[in-house]
Specification:
The complex is a heterodimer of chains A (882) and B (121).
Chain A: H1 9-29, H2 34-45, H3 48-59, H4 62-80, H5 82-111, E1 123-130, E2 133-136, H6 140-149, E3 153-159, E4 164-170, E5 173-182, H7 186-190, E6 196-197, E7 213-216, H8 218-225, E8 235-238, E9 241-248, E10 263-266, H9 270-273, E11 291-296, H10 302-319, E12 327-333, H11 341-376, H12 378-386, H13 391-427, H14 443-468, H15 473-477, H16 485-521, E13 531-536, H17 545-561, E14 565-571, E15 581-587, E16 597-604, H18 608-612, E17 616-619, E18 633-637, H19 638-644, E19 654-661, E20 664-676, E21 691-695, E22 707-713, H20 720-730, E23 736-741, H21 742-747, H22 751-785, H23 787-795, H24 800-835, H25 845-871, H26 875-881
Parallel strand pairs in A: 5-10, 7-9, 16-21, 18-20
Antiparallel strand pairs in A: 1-2, 1-11, 1-12, 3-11, 4-5, 4-8, 6-9, 7-10, 8-9, 13-22, 13-23, 14-22, 15-16, 15-19, 17-20, 18-21, 19-20
Chain B: H1 2-6, H2 21-30, E1 35-36, H3 37-47, H4 56-69, E2 72-78, E3 84-90, H5 92-116
Classes of the chains: A alpha+beta (882), B alpha+beta (121).
Chain lengths: 882, 121
């Protein structure tokens, strides 16, 4: 039994002592004098030290001991070559740091289980498909039927995935908070326990208006109520309606998504929570606005639940063929981004692939360096082998050195990765919602980094270690510099591989940069510089359609008085954001109804076009007089004008709009008074769309999203704070939803591309630098190994040019091979990139040429410096040096 | 040296122990009861009429090995001359091992003896 073996040195030494004492005793009894007896006992025993050593070795785990020795030795070796250690650790830190940073994001978005939820592996998101496609929202009546009928699920809950801005009333003004509207079984199905009070439950009634209660999030409770438990049971005013706090959610809980809500409100209170909605939304089967989720019953697999949902969907389609046309249902494991998992996974895979590539470049680079060092150290290694060290022991020693460098690099990489993550986050524009993405370094991230470090160390360390220990002891000891042909070939392979991978990375970066440039150079039809947005939801402060209009008109006037403001207006939506308004069917009077086209559009106040600097190519802007009493007017964009009256002047023409308004279908006919320049409305990549502008003053706007004050200030001036102050003075109960620049607002759609560009360009630069170091190292190494040869050549009359060629040729040839392989690898990679949903197009051949020239320049520059040095070799010294 | 004179066999007649035989001798010695390291060394030397040299030091790694295999057990106790010593004792497994090894040893020596023929003189 192993623990019996656990004796310490002390015990063993004592046993030997006893032995010697007993033997001495015996000899004394036989008549020796004590001193002789002691000597004799020692002699009979033999070497005490040797015995102790054998005991020591029998007891110790030998490899651990070796490891300790190897580590100490490796530390000394690295300490003696600080330049190598510094460059190696730095490049590894970059490679591993990039991996850690991206993996932190992957972990937060795809791997981490949501906090404070019981058994999250049994939870599923349920989405609606149309003709088998998509993962969409569901209507409340359909949800109720599903909840009733599903037998494979232990409860089905529904919620509005985008948090609703609400106005929290208090004695000193309004505060904008975010609330999530959920069914009363939401917390029960998720298996959440209240931190204080209670959560919603089956006892809470679901009739509209019946349950004026809220649950507070833990962080909101701490922030707003200083975590006072007495708040449970207290009243609270949301959007001017009285609610009662029934409980506090557990710390860290924010449902299954990344959005962080401040409060949860039951579905029954939807009209109070979202003043622009009416309770009819709870009865409209065609109005899909809710996300669903459920918990699999014990023993039920996802596939079984999936099959049941499919048949339930068929039933719903049969019962309500109109509203539920082509509807299907799909269940998927819960995700923090329900419905977008595929997109997020593809994007993260792209980033992971890029950082993995850069790490491979780092490994190839270091492997090359290690090979070169192995040659430099062949004397030392040969000596160790000659003295009887086994080859495995020497390989272990070399690997320990590599491992030590990589672990040091990994530690530095974690720190660097933290910085990189912070920088990445800073790239994001201000989000219109509170998001809780946990980017802490948890065990998973640290384990990942450790495994990647060790794996990378093996990748770059094994081949050099095997190769450099294959020395012929005798010639190596005699310091013969020739030979090692195979080794230098291997070194070339590493360099070529490194250059090929670097090229792939640089090409990827170029593809992404081109896409971003294209997006940036697209004429979007407005000038965003200097424009600031202040979004308000007047319904939250109790304004009606009429009073809100008056208030905004006054506010716009006052904003125009702010010093520095050049122009101000109001719009219902802004281009290139998340909101787009469908304005129903449009047609020329007298046309057949099937010729009508559905158009997107916007409701704007006068001077919107001036504020956005969108040119009116024909006609006039809306005026103060285009209000509800005046004849109805419309402004079209160029594409819309061409579409209805090709080759004809649209001004003064009549156009009919069919919409589904609050009073059912209605048709309105209006006069075209202007034509605005084309622009981009939903995304910069779109083709020209027909688009219409309607005067805000001529329409009643039930169910519209918030309205936005649009201001243009003189260059470099910010007026948003002043606008907010004006609003707060005018009505302290009106919460401001968002306040940001138009640039930030429109940047939102480009976030993934911007992140990808930031990551890929920095990685491209790093790998290009590493390629440079690699080529430089190769050339410098050539010079140092062939100094004698160069000396001889110079002595017999070689010109500096010949020496330059001799030294540079290898690096340049290898670069050429690497570039060719890289180009071949890049072709499928660039097609792969084009398939990602980022709006990328495959790579233009001209850019390939640019990248190749770039690499050629790098190769020449990197080999030139050592080559210059070689031309200055003094033949006499060179010949003596060996 | 005075110790040498006390031995009954001359240097030439001493036999260096074959590999593995020390283990067998230790086990055999312990058949008569628990004994400490010095006692075992003495017993082997005395019982072989001092023909076998046991380098006392080499005894201990062997004891260590046997203990690790579970053939002997050890415990600190007091010797009959009132010194604290580590006493070794045969385990059940050790006894079985001894029986097996002894038989094998006898077969081996008998076979070698037959080949070499009757002893001269």
């Amino acid at each position: 039994m192993w623990w019996r073996r656990r004796r310490n040195d002390q015990d063993f030494r004592q046993e030997i002592e006893t032995h010697l004492a007993l033997e001495t005793d015996r000899l004394v009894r036989e008549g020796f004098d004590p001193k002789d007896a002691r000597d004799a006992a020692h002699q009979a025993f033999g070497s005490v030290t040797a015995t102790q050593e054998r005991f020591y070795e029998s007891r110790r785990v030998l490899w651990l001991d070796d490891l300790q020795r190897d580590l100490r030795y490796a530390g000394r070796v690295l300490y003696r070559s600080p330049a190598f250690a510094a460059v190696a650790v730095l490049s590894i830190a970059l490679g591993i740091g990039a991996n850690t940073a991206i993996f932190t994001l992957v972990n937060a978005l795809l791997l981490r289980s949501p906090t404070a939820i019981a058994d999250p592996n049994r939870l599923v998101d349920i989405g609606v498909t149309r003709r088998g496609e998509g993962f969409n929202t569901v209507s409340y009546p359909n949800y109720l039927d599903l909840r009733e009928r599903a037998t494979t699920l232990d409860g089905v809950y529904a919620y509005l995935v985008i948090d609703t801005p609400m106005s929290l009333g208090s004695s000193d003004g309004a505060e904008r908070i975010f609330g999530k509207i959920v069914t009363t079984n939401y917390f029960t199905v998720l298996g959440v326990r209240a931190a204080a009070g209670r959560l919603f439950g089956t006892g809470d009634r679901e009739q509209p208006g019946a349950s004026p209660i809220v649950v507070l999030s833990h962080s909101f409770w701490a922030r707003h109520y200083h975590a006072d438990p007495a708040v449970v049971g207290q009243p609270l005013t949301l959007n001017g309606h009285p609610f009662t706090v029934v409980g506090i959610a557990p710390e860290g809980f924010h449902g299954t998504t990344v959005l962080a809500s401040d409060v949860w409100v039951p579905m029954a209170m939807v009209a109070e929570a979202m003043p622009r909605q009416s309770v009819t939304i709870l009865h409209e089967r065609g109005d899909a606005w809710l996300n669903m989720g459920g918990r699999l019953k014990p023993g039920i697999s996802l596939a079984v639940a999936q099959a049941e949902l499919a048949s339930l969907a068929q039933g719903l389609v049969r019962e309500h063929p109109g509203d539920n046309r082509a509807m299907g249902l799909r269940a998927a494991p819960i995700s923090v981004v329900p419905g977008f998992t595929g997109y997020v996974t593809a994007f993260m895979a792209l980033l992971m692939a890029m950082v993995a590539l850069v790490l491979l470049v780092v490994c190839a680079n270091l492997a090359g360096v290690l090979m070169a060092r192995g040659v430099e150290r062949r004397h030392e290694l040969a000596l160790r082998l000659a003295l009887g060290a086994g080859r495995p022991r020497v390989i272990a020693q070399l690997l320990t050195e590599t491992m030590l460098v990589f672990l040091a690099g990994g530690v530095a990489g974690v720190a660097f990765g933290r910085t990189a993550t912070t920088l990445l986050i800073r790239l994001l524009p201000l989000l219109p919602l509170a998001v809780d993405v946990d980017l802490t370094l948890d065990h998973r991230v640290l384990l990942f980094t450790l495994l990647v470090s060790c794996g990378a160390a093996l990748v770059s360390g094994v081949v050099p270690a095997m190769q450099t220990t294959q020395v012929d002891v005798i010639p190596a000891l005699k310091d013969d510099t020739q030979g090692g042909f195979r080794r230098s070939q291997l070194q070339s392979v590493f360099l070529v591989g490194q250059i090929a991978l670097s090229l792939v990375l640089v090409v990827a970066a170029a593809v992404l940069v081109q896409a971003l440039q294209r997006a940036g150079s697209v004429d979007v039809g407005f000038d965003s510089v200097g424009v600031e947005l202040t979004a308000v939801d007047l319904s939250l402060a109790g304004y009606t359609d009429t009073t809100g209009r008056v208030f905004l008109r006054e506010m716009t006037e006052r904003v125009r008085q702010i010093p520095g403001v050049q122009s101000a207006s109001v719009a219902a939506a802004l281009p290139l954001g998340s909101v787009s308004l469908g304005l129903g069917a449009w047609s020329v009077p007298g046309d057949a109804p099937e010729r009508a086209v559905f158009l997107g559009g916007n409701f704007v106040e006068p001077r919107y076009f001036a504020t956005m600097r969108t040119a009116l190519v024909r006609g006039r802007d809306f005026t103060e007089q285009d209000d509800s009493g005046a004849p109805e007017v419309v402004i079209l964009n160029e594409t819309a004008a061409r579409r209805f009256w090709p080759g004809d002047d649209p001004l003064g023409k009549r156009i009919t709009n069919n919409t589904r308004g609050p009073g059912g279908r209605e048709a309105r006919t209006m006069t075209v008074v202007g034509v605005a320049r084309d622009g981009k409305y939903r995304s910069v990549g779109e083709a020209n769309q027909p688009f219409v502008y309607l005067p805000l003053r001529q329409r009643s706007l039930p169910g519209l999203p918030s309205l936005t004050l649009v201001t243009r200030a003189a260059r470099g001036q910010r007026v948003a704070a002043e606008v907010r102050r004006l609003l707060a003075v005018a009505n302290p109960n009106l919460p401001v939803l968002t306040s940001q620049t138009l640039d930030d607002y429109t940047a939102f759609g480009l976030v993934p591309l911007r992140v990808a560009v930031a990551v890929s360009t920095s990685l491209g630069v790093v790998s290009l630098l590493l390629a440079m170091i690699g080529i430089y190292g190769m050339a410098a190494y050539t010079v140092s190994r062939r100094t004698r040869e160069i000396g001889i050549r110079i002595a017999i009359g070689a010109q500096p040019r010949d020496v330059l060629t001799l030294v540079c040729r290898r690096g340049i040839v290898l670069t050429g091979i690497g570039v060719l392989i890289g180009v071949v690898l890049s072709l499928p990679m660039s097609r792969l990139l084009a398939n990602l949903p980022l709006g990328l197009s495959p790579f233009a051949p001209s850019t390939f040429i640019v990248v190749m020239v770039l690499f050629a320049a790098v190769a020449m520059l990197a080999s030139y410096i050592p080559a210059r040095r070689a031309t200055h070799v003094d033949p006499l010294i060179a010949l003596r040096a060996e | 040296m005075s110790t040498r004179k006390k031995t009954s066999a001359t240097d030439e007649e001493r036999i260096a122990l074959l590999q593995g035989t020390l283990d067998l001798l230790i086990l055999r010695t312990l058949v008569f009861g628990a004994q400490h390291g010095q006692g075992i060394a003495r017993a082997i030397q005395d019982q072989s009429d001092r023909a076998l040299i046991v380098d006392h030091g080499s005894l201990y790694p062997a004891l260590q090995r046997l203990e690790a295999r579970g053939w002997i057990e050890a415990e600190w106790g007091t010797s009959n001359h009132n010194r604290k010593a580590r006493f070794y004792e045969l385990t059940k497994a050790g006894r079985k091992e001894l029986v097996g090894e002894t038989q094998q040893w006898r077969r081996l020596t008998a076979a070698i003896g037959r080949i070499l023929g009757p002893a001269e003189g």
